Amino acid sequence: MSIASRTFASGFVVSLLAACAVGPDYQQPDLATPAQFQNRQGIDQRQAAPAADLVTWWQGFGDPLLTRLVTQALADNLDIAQALARVSQSRAVLQFATAALLPSGEISAQAARAHLSLQTPQGRVLDAIPGFDRNGGYYEAGIGAGWEIDVFGGQRRDREAAIAEYQASRAGIAAARLAVAAQTADLYVGIRGLQARLAIANQQAETQRRLLSTIKLQYEAGVAAELQMRQAEGALAQVEAGIPVLEAALESVSNALDVLLGTQPGTHRAELSLPSPIPVAPMIADAGGPADLIRRRPDLIVAERRLAAANARIGAAISEYYPKLSLSGLLGTATTVSGNLFDGGANQARATLGLRWRIFDFVRVDAEIAAARGRNAESLAAYKLSVLRASQDVEDAFSMLVRREAQASSLASGETSYVRARDASLAAYKGGVVSLIEVLDADSRLLATRDARAQAQTEAARAAIASFRALGGGWNPAENAGS
User: Fold this and answer.
1) Which segments within 181-323 are labelled E, that is strand?
2) DSSP assigned state of 286
3) What dotted CATH number matches 25-100+155-299+365-470?
4) What is the pTM for the complete model shown?
5) Where residue 150 falls among pLDDT bands split at 50, 70, 90?
6) What is the pLDDT of residues 392-406, one digit of tens each?
7) DSSP string, 382-425
8) What whole-number distance in Å separates Cα of residue 60 and Cα of residue 209?
């Protein structure tokens, strides 16, 4: 039977017996949510690049390499491959649950030859019969069919649960893709931030070396105190000690990105070593409110579909209270002579009406129903908690984005002031008013501010990525509604 024919037959059977399905019908929970996010106003007031499309938000950062890496990750990531494999498994379970509603049939045939022992009681008796042939054969062929009639809907509830699990696995693909896209962008931004900080740290080390060299000359000339020289040595050591830490972190993040892309660690290191600024977070448009998360976030769709599956399994458990009816039949032939297999006298037929009822097993049925209701209650609580945590994710990401950008803005103003201070000290040094120490100290303060600003810019971009992920950006729910 073709897939289309089986689907039609299954739909006919389900429609025929639909009124008899026991157990509660599923109703999606109606969750009360606020109209908008608390930090939405701060997001709307941001001064940033143009707004990014929520479906392809990574393109809004305006970095071609970032876009290419996200595209590669979505194609080659192994977490996504696992999610696709889980869809294949759930599809097979659904097909099995659908097939259980339909009659089953089989063709069977067998041929046997036997040589009877004369040393058994049966052989001794038969051997006494004149003309007995101890060699014999048996030949049989037939067509059998069976059908368990789903009178009370237990199998339909199983199929309903299988449909919900299949839909959950489909949403799981979207959830995996969203996570991979966000992780790829987050690691890329982290790499650019560490590269910027590493460059600043090397500049700081060079500035401290020049400062130490100047103080040593003054110390040898008897102008500077030993304490001042030792403090300069300690400051240089502190800056130099931070460089290996940044280098190790950069290698670790680069390796993590390679694995996320489905490649060996180190594959993209040369490509990523080319200088590039920290990506600027775009505006966030069409964020909607907490109620929109239920439609947009695929992980919430997964949780809701699993709740629907748990609800259907209550009905499947309740159906065990009721009798199971089955029909089976056989039409075929049987003979001991191979040439007579299709003679009229070899024909045989059998029809059976079966009944199975766990009438003395209701204690176990009660336990099965209680367990199903417990799993449903657990799934409901998990779904409600997922919705709350989704709103928390958005609020936290919005708050971090607004405040990190404010921090970066303040540090930018401080950097401007330190640039002027350094220029003023340099002019004073050239005029003989101050020593080189003051100039180098101004350079050190400027570089420290630049490092703090690079960190703030990195965290702001990461907060924007977290915002897009929390909002369920990266897929179009309308296009996947029929999947």
Assistant:
1) 282-284
2) -
3) 1.20.1600.10
4) 0.83
5) confident
6) 999 999 999 999 999
7) HHHHHHHHHHHHHHHHHHHHHHHHHHHHHHHHHHHHHHHHHHHH
8) 41
